[in-house]
Structure formats: C-alpha cells, structure tokens
Amino acid sequence: MTQIVDDSKFAVMLTFDMDAESAFLANDPENAHRVGVLSQGQYGPKVGVPRLIELLERKGLPATMFVPGWCAEKYPDAVRAAVSVGWEIAHHGYHHIPPASQTREEEAESILKGIAAIDKVAGKAPIGYRSPSWDFSSNTLDLLTQNGFLYSSNMMDNDVPYLHPVSSSAGPIVELPIQWILDDAPFFMFSRPAVRPISALSNAFEHWSEEFEGLYAERERGKIYVLTMHPFISGRPSRVRLPATSSPKPRKPDDEFTRRGLTGQVQDYPAPAMPALAERVGLGRLGEGKDRPDMGLDFPFGH
Ligand SMILES: [Zn+2]
C-alpha cells in the first residue's frame, strides 16, 4: 500500500455539513408544519456559518462545506460567504434524502439537481460528495463516476485515503474516510424523538484529541483526520471554539497534548482542507475544472 500523504505532514480536514432544516424535513415530512423544529437547523446558515467563517478566517484556516442543493438555493448568502473566504463547496444531496432509500432514478435526479444548485450559487460545480446521513447506496458510486466527481467522503472502512475500484471509463474516485467518532452529532445533537444527553465540550475534545493522537502516531502510514461538523451544532458560541482553538480544557492537559491538540494540529501541520490533500497527491487544483485523477499514481486500493 503506497502512502499518499507525506510522512512529514499530517492531513487534517475541517468539514461542515450545512444541512439547515433539510435533514429534519427528510427525516419526517410532518416537520414541515413544525416551525420550531425547523428553526434548530436554520441556525446553521443564519448564525453558525457566519460565526465559523469569522473564526476560521481569523486563524487562516480553509474548510470544506457540504451543502444539499436545496439548502444552497434557500441560503445562497451563507454559501457565497463561504466561497468568498476560499472554502470549498461540495455536494450533499438535494433534499438530504438518504440515497439508500431512493430508487436509482431518484438518486440520479438528486445528484443532478444538487450539482446544478451549487454550480449556480457557488459559481462552480462540486467535485466532492458526501451522501446525506452517510447513507451511500449501491448506485451512488456509479452515479458519482458518471457525474465527474473526484472524491467521496462517506466510508468508514479505512483511515487512509484510497481509490474506489470502479471500472467505469470515467475513472476512479478518491475516498477520504470518515467516522462517527469524528462527528459532532453523536456528542451534541439533541432533538425529539431522538433525545440523548448533550456532551460537555471537554468530552468531545477528549475523544477528538485522542483520535487525533492515534492517527497522528500512524501518520507515516498515510492516516488522515477528517472532522465532520454541522453549523447548527458546532456553530454555537461555546462549541465554535472546539475545532479551532485550544480553549476547551482537556481533563489531563499537558504541553504536548495542547500543542498538538485540536488547535495545535491546524497551526502546526498543513492541509486542513480537502483541496489541499488532493493537491498534494497530484490531483491538480480541485475546483478548477473536472480533471480526472492522475492514474499514474500508485494509490492504496481498498484495504
Ligand atoms: Zn447532512
């Protein structure tokens, strides 16, 4: 297995899924009548995104924002604000309907409508895809290949990037793996009927930092750290510190931990966003056209 990340660097990717109210509507159409329920998601584009942009901009950190096409059309200002500071806008379905619950035709339509919406609002067609609810279907990969995507960030079967072994003439797609442990929802998401205790920041900080330390220790094997957050969750005034500052206090702080912790890593190590990783592995500048990956590279395949 060839490493695609330089062992002197460690790829950290800050990603935000701007679901707004789309996930609440997809989970239960009856929520369309529940203005209060929907408002929880609306906090993302209205308040969370501007706050996150301000913070990351101050720290000079880029990010990738996955946006359902319907949300891009409803909240163009939030999307354009992210574009204006250099964030990448990537595909996250159209109505945030889990692809595995759709027919192939329905999923194909969602992908096409999502591409058109992002192209129109962000001024550039997306080249990265994260499926709504990470619910990749058996048709998704083929549809991504047909629609010129360059990467997927959906799978939990590895913690190094790899190529999907598709045989379509359009070529393979790079997988940038994710995991629930590096998602803000399991720690902080609270809504009826799926009620759960809301974690303290220190709890999430501890999990994320420990995972960071584990992956960093294996950086020579090409491990990457992909943090998945949601503006309506991590855009809260308290939580916004989590991805980009060292303010949250770990239970057992020490100099090394703090220096290389959730803030340290982005200050000390390059490549906090997906485009940066892709550039490093020779895919060219993402977002500028839809060039296929250089197949001459020896990517790790699968496991
Ligand atoms: Zn989502």
- Ligands bound, unique: zinc ion
Under the CATH scheme, the architecture is Alpha-Beta Barrel
Number of strands: 8
- Form type: globular
For the termini, the CA-CA separation is 8 Å
- Helix and strand sequence: EHHEHHEHEHEEEHHEHHHHH
The total count of helices amounts to 13
Rounded mean pLDDT score: 77
**Number of domain units:** 1
Topology readout:
Layout: E1 11-17, H1 22-27, H2 35-58, E2 64-67, H3 69-74, H4 76-84, E3 88-91, H5 104-122, E4 128-129, H6 140-146, E5 151-152, E6 162-163, E7 174-175, H7 185-188, H8 201-217, E8 224-229, H9 231-234, H10 241-244, H11 255-260, H12 264-268, H13 274-280
Parallel strand pairs: 1-2, 1-8, 2-3, 4-5, 5-7
Antiparallel strand pairs: 6-7
Bound molecules: zinc ion.
Overview of this structure, please?
The protein is α/β, with parallel strands linked by helices. It has one domain (11-280): Glycoside hydrolase/deacetylase (TIM Barrel). Helix content is 39%, strand content 10%. The protein contains 13 helices and eight strands. It has helices at 22-27, 35-58, 69-74, 76-84, 104-122, 140-146, 185-188, 201-217, 231-234, 241-244, 255-260, 264-268, 274-280, and strands spanning 11-17, 64-67, 88-91, 128-129, 151-152, 162-163, 174-175, 224-229. Helix 2 runs parallel beside helix 4. The longest helix is centred in the N-terminal third of the chain and has 24 residues, at 35-58. The radius of gyration is 18 Å and the shape is globular. It starts with 10 loop residues before the first strand and ends in a 23-residue tail after the last helix. Residues 17, 19, 23, 92, 96, 132 line the site of zinc ion.
